[in-house]
C-alpha cells in the first residue's frame, strides 16, 4: 500500500524550534535526517514545503477561478512537508509514524489507484 505522510507543524512547535539555539536546532534536524535514513527502504519520495505565506490558492467554485496569495485557510497548523511511503498496510504506516521525531501531527492518507 502506498500512503502519503503529511507532517503538520503547529504554532507551538514552530515557536519551540525558533527558540532553539543553532546547536539544538541542528540536533533536531539531525534526528529528522536519521529518521529518513532509517526508513529509506519504505520512503519513495519526500520534500519540505515552503512556509504558508508563499502559497497561492485557486478557488474553483462558482464562475471564474479566483487566485489569492497565501494559504487556503488561516490556521494554527500547517503542512510543512510530506513523504510518500510504500508499506504492507496501515499498521506498518502507523508503526513508522510513531517514530517520527519532529512535527507533533502526522496525517496518513492512502494514495488512490
Shape type: flat
CATH domain class name = Alpha Beta
**For the record, what is the CATH homologous superfamily label?**
Dimeric alpha+beta barrel
The low-pLDDT segments are none
Secondary-structure-based class equals alpha+beta
> How is the largest sheet built, in terms of strand order?
2-5-1-6
CATH topology name: Alpha-Beta Plaits
Write down the Rg.
Answer: 16 Å
Distance between the termini: 10 Å
As for the number of domains, it is 1
Task: Tell me about the largest β-sheet.
Answer: 4 strands, antiparallel
Second CATH tier, the architecture: 2-Layer Sandwich
Reading the helices and strands in chain order gives EHHEEEEHE
Main attributes of the structure:
four-stranded antiparallel β-sheet; Alpha-Beta Plaits; alpha+beta; 113 residues; 31% helix; two-stranded antiparallel ribbon; flat; 3 helices; single chain
What does this structure look like?
With 113 residues, the protein is an alpha+beta fold. It has a single domain (2-110), classed as 2-Layer Sandwich (Alpha-Beta Plaits), CATH 3.30.70. Helices cover 31% and strands 35% of the residues. The protein is built from three helices and six strands; from the N terminus they run E-H-H-E-E-E-E-H-E. The protein has helices spanning 11-19, 22-38, 90-98, and strands at residues 2-10, 43-48, 56-59, 66-69, 77-86, 105-110. A four-stranded antiparallel sheet has the order 2-5-1-6. A two-stranded antiparallel ribbon has the order 3-4. It is flat and about 50 Å long. The model has no long low-confidence stretch (mean pLDDT 91).
